[in-house]
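*** Backbone structure tokens ***
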Amino acid sequence: MSTVAPNSDTARSSDWAFKQLFKLESKCRSPTPALQVEAIGEFPKLLDQFPFPTLVSSAFLKLGDLFRSSPNSLRYHIAQVFGASQQHLAQITQTEELLKRILVVLYSNDPIARVLALRLIGNASLIFAKFPEAQHSILLRYQSSHPLEIVAAVQTTESMLSYSPEFLEVVWETVLSKADDPDVLDSVRVQLIRSLQHAAPNLMLSTLLYSHCQHWACDTDSTNIIRCAAMDTWKAIIQRHNELQS
């Protein structure tokens, strides 16, 4: 009897959790924006309370569907949920299907929608970082003329590199080109230069990076913030090399 009760309790909990999920989904389809935002904000609490893989996968797929079909005002809140529930992302069993839903938005004609898609991918880098489709899509965003989209692409690149350092080889030329571009905001160039610290494990890229850091640090046209970023990046590379050799 003692072995049956827990299973029965688990089954009841699972049933109840899915009922709550369906209620949230229905609430998300409400014609009242305030109710939609409220429902989206309740997803992290549900996932924390019932972190079952089947429920987690279903919940994130529903959020992916909602992200694909919603206005940007709701997309913002959905992207926030992905950030607030990062501890549950690894339990998603249909990651590729979820990514497809997000990429639909990333390839849209709306630059703000693309920014929000980049933010979501960055928040979910843990599961998306190694997908070539995600990597290629981010690389394309560097061609944008929209300043917010460039910033979002840089931030997402930084997040992706934390989980997939080899991604740097994909974006290397693009990141260097943007970091060298004086027309790019210094704040963005600094982020780009600092992201190159991920070259540390790669001897060839580290060697190439040295000459670039030297150029940025010594160039009379460089601002102080660029010089500092270049020197900090190279110091981080040296420190990482020392750690790897010790």
Q: What stands out?
A: Residues 1-8 have pLDDT under 50 and may be disordered.
